[in-house]
Specification:
single chain; 269 residues; alpha+beta; Arc Repressor Mutant, subunit A; 4 domains; four-stranded antiparallel β-sheet; 13 helices
Length: 269
């Protein structure tokens, strides 16, 4: 026979369908509404320590499961995301594992389905390449073999199309730069976004960029004037050296740089 050690003194409704059960000993614990009804917990109910422990376990499972369902109602989640969410909700490890297994058995959590959906959505809505998407999925706890399988949803022709659009936007952003620097910056941007060298090359080829000598001279003059003013504290030799170095690093033609500096010298005479 189990000794009765506690008596329910009162019940207080909390948020999220939880109740606070106060005991005559001064102790208290939380119970979900479903468990409260199933156990018929009323004022004056006597409970053993074992029964209280079982109620708390059932509450963890019931409350945690409902929290997980609510979290899933907004969008698909990875197993790790569910696990981390339940940690924040203070659901203990045994209950977390049981809840996740229950969700998996109902096909509510499936890392492959989640990953394929994530890849399709990102391929359609973002300008990120496969390497960045791999990293994002790894952060969400997805295993390498599942990631590779999911990436089949983002074939090379679609990668090229996304990269081309990103390259076209970048070209507008860098239109004031030299032809050489434009190419360098676009390549660097696409690499940062996670595209492969082959896809990057195809995207840049599609831009059909051509070097316009007149445009290059105009861009050089605009930047050169800024650099010439910036380095006015130096003597002429040092000033020319610094401006030459900066313009050359920006991808401008050396003969065009010399012609520009000759003009600046004549202006200062």
């Amino acid at each position: 026979m189990v000794d009765l050690v506690e008596t329910v003194k009162g019940l207080l409704k909390l948020k999220n369908n939880l109740y606070k059960v106060s005991l005559t000993s001064g102790k208290s614990f939380r119970v979900s509404e479903d468990v409260l009804v199933r156990r018929r917990l009323l004022k004056g109910t006597e409970l053993s320590e074992e029964e209280i422990a079982e109620i708390q376990k059932q509450t963890q499972l019931d409350h945690g499961y409902q929290q997980a369902l609510n979290y899933l109602s907004y969008q698909l989640r990875s197993e790790k995301e569910i696990h981390d969410y339940l940690v924040k909700k203070e659901i203990e490890l045994p209950s977390r594992l049981e809840i996740i297994e229950r969700l998996k058995s109902l096909n509510l959590v499936d890392d492959l389905v989640f990953s394929e959906s994530y890849i399709r959505t990102q391929a359609r809505l973002s300008d990120k390449g496969p390497r960045v998407l791999k990293d994002k999925l790894r952060q969400k706890g997805i295993k390498a073999d599942i990631i590779e399988q999911a990436l089949e949803q983002f074939p090379s022709d679609e990668q090229e199309e996304v990269a081309k659009i990103a390259a076209q936007k970048a070209l507008k952003k860098y239109q004031r730069h030299s032809f050489v620097e434009q190419q360098q910056k676009i390549k660097q941007l696409l690499m940062t976004k996670g595209f492969s060298p082959d896809v990057i090359s195809l995207a840049i080829q599609d831009l059909e960029m051509e070097k316009d000598p007149e445009s290059e001279v105009e861009k050089l003059a605009v930047l050169g004037d800024k650099l010439w003013r910036k380095n006015q504290r130096h003597d002429l030799s040092k000033r020319k050296q610094k401006v030459t170095q900066s313009l050359y690093q920006k991808g401008f033609n050396f003969d065009d740089i010399r012609a520009f500096l000759s003009e600046k010298e004549m202006e200062d005479e």
